[in-house]
Amino acid sequence: MASEQKPVLYSYWRSSCSWRVRIALALKNIDYEYKTVDLLSEQAKSDLKAINPTAKVPAFVVNGQVLGESLAIIEYLEETHPEVPLLPKDPIKRALARQIALLVASGIQPLHNLKVLQILNKKEAGFGGQFAKQFVVEGLTALEVLLKEHSGKYAVGDVVTIADLNIPPLVYSANRFNLDLSAYPTVNRINATLAEIPAFIAAHPDNQPDTGLNA
């Protein structure tokens, strides 16, 4: 039987979506090849489209099969590499972990991604940033309420879940927009706790092969 190929992650150091997957890979101690996609290069995005029809990162290639969308990739990793688990066994906690993950990944992040900002800034200089700040603030406000109600040491109880993988990228983006985060003490506490975990450190944008590209 042929040995399995090392999986490949097409990533960009500052991509929130790629960051989530990098954390999951690090937590589960999965060895992979990192391939940089320069998201500001039209040629790079065109080349990526031949692999992933959406021309987005992350794209995760495992034994010739291409998987896209960060949460779908993380769920695949959860099913194929159950240690360390990222979904609680309790059905309610499992649903809450997914709820928080989706709040960030589907309800907040898409509204301040690079493509949206570029389109809005073409219409009016600086409008993209104003638009992004509004929805990041709204999202953080909702997240703070959820975390106050359901968090322990981490977002849902006292073990890291899929919910936690979404918090550092969101806080990082909020800081890039120079938002005052003092109104979100629970978010800040959990983010600070996660920042001390080796897997989260390894996945941080500052520790990637393409760190600083287009900074």
TrEMBL record:
Question: Under which pathway is this protein filed?
Answer: Amino-acid degradation; L-phenylalanine degradation; acetoacetate and fumarate from L-phenylalanine: step 5/6
Name the EC number(s): 5.2.1.2
Pfam families the UniProt entry points to: GST_C_3, GST_N_2
**PROSITE patterns in UniProt:** GLUTAREDOXIN_2, GST_CTER, GST_NTER
- What's its top-level EC category? isomerase
Transmembrane ranges? none
Query: What GO biological process terms does the UniProt entry carry, in alphabetical order?
Result: glutathione metabolic process; L-phenylalanine catabolic process; L-tyrosine catabolic process
Q: Which GO terms describe its cellular component?
A: mitochondrion
Keyword Transit peptide present in the record's keywords: the answer is no
Q: Give GO MF terms, alphabetically.
A: glutathione transferase activity; maleylacetoacetate isomerase activity
Q: Which UniProt keywords apply?
A: Phenylalanine catabolism, Tyrosine catabolism
Q: Which cofactor does it need?
A: glutathione
Stretches assigned to the GST N-terminal domain: 5-85
Per the record, what are the reactions this protein catalyses? Answer: 4-maleylacetoacetate = 4-fumarylacetoacetate
Domain named GST C-terminal: residues: 90-213
Keyword check for rRNA-binding: no
Which InterPro entries does the annotation name? Answer: Glutathione-S-Trfase_C-like (IPR010987), Glutathione-S-Trfase_C_sf (IPR036282), Glutathione_S-Trfase (IPR040079), Glutathione_S-Trfase_N (IPR004045), GST_C (IPR004046), GST_Zeta (IPR005955), GST_Zeta_C (IPR034330), GST_Zeta_N (IPR034333)
Family designation: Belongs to the GST superfamily. Zeta family.
Identify the PANTHER family for this entry.
MALEYLACETOACETATE ISOMERASE (PTHR42673:SF4)
- Descriptive protein name: maleylacetoacetate isomerase
Q: Which organism is it from?
A: Caenorhabditis tropicalis
